[in-house]
Amino acid sequence: MALRVLCPNAAVFEVEHRYLTREVRRLRPDLVVCSRATEVVREQVASWVELYPDCGSLSEVCLDGECSTVDDLQLSDLLDIVRAPQRAASTG
């Protein structure tokens, strides 16, 4: 997965969608990137990205409770999202 290579300081876990809820409860991640956000992701994860659901061009991005719809989200945009908590931790 590109995120492992491009964000080596991030702990990246891949899970099948059917295990997403279980792994969110177990790992308590700061950020989830998925193709379909579950109710548990929406309620228990502060920041998440629902990347191209239904193979469309729109993605839903929710960062610390601020949600928006983004058209044609690019890898560079996703990298900015993934790296944001790392920047805050290193400057705070």
Written overview of the protein:
This protein is an alpha+beta fold. The chain has one domain (2-91). 39% of the residues lie in helices and 22% in strands. It has four helices and four strands, in the order H-H-E-H-E-E-E-H. It has helices at residues 2-6, 20-27, 39-44, 75-91; strands at 31-34, 47-50, 58-63, 66-71. It has a four-stranded mixed sheet with strand order 1-2-3-4, with no helix packed on it. The longest helix is centred in the last third of the chain and has 17 residues, at 75-91. 12% of the residues are buried.
Helix content: 25-40%
Strand order of the largest sheet: 1-2-3-4
Which percent range describes the beta-strand content?
15-25%
Number of helices: 4
Unreliable stretches (pLDDT < 50, length at least 5) are: none
Q: What structural class should be given to the helix and strand makeup?
A: alpha+beta
Mean pLDDT equals 88
Largest sheet: 4 strands, mixed
Instruction: Identify the overall geometry.
Output: globular
Could you tell me the radius of gyration in angstroms? Answer: 13 Å
Summarize the helix and strand pattern as letters: HHEHEEEH
Summed up, the domain count is 1
Tally of strands: 4
Blueprint (SSEs and pairs):
Blueprint: H1 2-6, H2 20-27, E1 31-34, H3 39-44, E2 47-50, E3 58-63, E4 66-71, H4 75-91
Parallel strand pairs: 1-2
Antiparallel strand pairs: 2-3, 3-4
Summarize this entry quickly.
This protein has helices at 2-6, 20-27, 39-44, 75-91; strands spanning 31-34, 47-50, 58-63, 66-71. The chain has 92 residues and is an alpha+beta fold.
